[in-house]
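COMPLEX REQUEST
Ligand: zinc ion
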Amino acid sequence: MKRIYISCDMEGITGICSDRHREIGDVFYEWGRKMMTRELNTVIDIFLKKGVEDIVVNDSHHYMMNLRIDELSSNVSLISGTHKTDSMMEGITSEFDGAVFIGYHGKSGLSNAVLSHTYSDSIIKVTLNGICTGETTLNAAFAGSKNVPVLLVSGDDKVAEEVTELKTGTRSVVTKIGITRSAGMMFHPEKIAKDYKESIEKVFKSNIKPFKIDPPYILDVTLKETQMVDIALRIPGTKRVDDSTLRFVSDDYITTYRAFIAIQTIASANYLK
Ligand SMILES: [Zn+2]
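STATUS: Structure written out below.
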């Protein structure tokens, strides 16, 4: 295993429990950013010691400028910046041997998952082929469409449940136990470092499969406001299935994912007032 792709989010990093930790400009944000960098470097160092030669990190949180290249371990490239066509999965190709998701969080609607959401707080629910999914599943399917297995996902205990449902052998590292959407039982970074080491050892000894779903891909997105649906219906191929839900269907997963990103971008826009 020589090439690893890491998508690094923030809400699932240990210590993070509040909007105040994850929003640029808040006095708590800088500490949140520091914890994100620390946990990511822990993972990078373990993979480098295992002989991985090329690691690409995609900053996958909010404006996607939380990580700084000079604060990361050497031998790492960083995809940084807000507008990326493939968002949290920008830059993944079939040339990677595996993908890793760090700092992921529970799906929209979960009351006991820390900072649960699916891409945007404007999204109430996402289903893919009838199954309610979060970012872990949507992004694992993206990697799967490139034939890349997701080796490891970290986040709270609710993320670990979503990982189990992939049925690919993907390992989980639990960084915290969700209590409410804005409170959790945090584990110490040194304990988590041991868990990452053990999990990555197991990754190298197992045969983890890419996550694949058979087409057609039927994506239903329920939005917070009915006007968001009215506006998102401008995206070719979408249709309304109820007052608050749009559907998009395609035989190509990348097309489906990009339609989803377009829907969430439009639904996140602050022009409804
Ligand atoms: Zn995030």
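REMARKS: The radius of gyration is 18 Å. The chain is about 30% helix and 25% strand.
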